[in-house]
Amino acid sequence: MNSHPISDLQHNAAGQVCYKLLNVEPVKSMLSGGPDRNFIQSSSHVLLLSKTSYGRLVINGQYYPLRQGGVYVCPPGQLIEAETGNEPGHMLLHFEGFYMPAPMEEQEVVLHTEEVWRFPFAGEAVIHPASAVIHLFDLLHAGWSQGKQSSRLRCEAGLLELLSLVLGYQEQQMELALETAKMELERNYKEDITIDQLAGIAGLSRFHFMRLFKERYGKGIMEYRTELRLMEAKRMMTSPSAPSLAVIAEAIGYKNETYFRNLFKKQTGIPPAAYQKNQKCKIAAYSWMNIGQLLPLQMIPFAAPVDHYWTDYYRNRYSYEIKLLLSHQYEFNREILRKAEPDYIIGVDHFIPAEEQQKLKDIAPTLLLPWKGEWREHLSLTAAFIGKEEEGGRWLERYEQKAAIIRKQLGPATRRDTVAVFIVSKGQLYVWGRKAGTVLYNDLQLGMPPAVADIDWLEPIDAQHLDRYDADRVLVHVEGDPLSQAYWSHLSRQRDWKRLAAACGPKLQVFSGNDLFKAPWNEYSAHYCERFLDEAPGLFRIAGAALPFHSE
Description:
Strand order of the largest sheet: 1-8-3-6-9
Largest sheet: 5 strands, antiparallel
Shape: globular
Number of domains: 4
């Protein structure tokens, strides 16, 4: 019985289970040399505690040397044999877990069997320091034998403490296993290393490894391998003596140069040749949204703020190129920009005081975009400033063509509908304004509820005023925090909500976890609008268009 997690699903539920200590008993020596052997086969979970290092233990045929402060977790049904001599240094704790029913449900609390609930760890847990286990051993040994309610309650607390130590050990082992597999991938990302190989290194099942890796590092395993490969490709492409793309592709693990070119463009938005050329120009994007005004021009800034609180999109994709991290402190930014000597600085006038604007102009040629302007104007001004007018014009032409295609996909019935976008965040309901919904209302030419026209970005609303924003179609983005989820669950059952024309049915779309809906005012740019346009068909369940939204 090796130490291992029992179930992928049970691990996260372990902290939501109620535990009951059923019995505490000393271990009597059961191993013998004769043909008759004595076993313990419990119908409940068992913790075996060892206060001394004397003796030996066999669980399901696997031998364990006993250690001082040892904790051994046995699921129901396992065979336990132990040799302990005459020392009272070993103890069995029989326990079980159950899920507490909802308060309104009139039903008995039933202890679940192993088919329903199992503790998410089995085997030996090495707890440091061992004295923590020995202290709990003494507490449980003394308290259970007294038989008093108060002492039994202390024993229950002792059980919870032991189980928390076991889960803490499991978490440490899981972290170590993930780091070991990640390091192996970082050493061998150029090779055809598989998920199964990495899962084997971590000692986990394929599914469990993939899920834990994504939870821990925020990206999938193959996604991370691609990131490592492209990072090395970028280093080679920008080196003084850059080899050919064919050589680079083969060096990072791709045998097909065309595949590498297409992958590179898909991940960065820029073809490799343009990337190599444009990286020689040093542009500082002073504000968050300025990054998205440069990307359509096939330019990635070398300096920018990447502390976007609502998304990891820019950090994940452009961390290699953005080597100079700007802050929101003017003096700090001026100092590092002065040393870096950028070719251009691009900012937004609304976010930079007039005095600071002049100081930036003293460092390098500076463009300050008008906050009240539209995103197309921002793109055109940026393109003219850095000498990329042709690129800007071609990008806008392609964008308009794409918008026309999607309008056609939507069909006349959808285009005649009005659309309202609601956001549930931190227990508050908001409605999107005309500028936040510019792709929907301007580029896709969908109908706008009259009250939305008076709002630029976002406005909090009360449920009793929902009828002002009634529409044929409704999009609702619910943040993943418990407060927002609970608020939406409550709101969707209220009469004020049910009075909306699209309160339920196919014209209501509810989703979570899409960063495009979290802070559009901070990303108001050509690149943001194209990302939104690409995902628009999924908002309306257009046939053949994959739904782009995933729950958090």
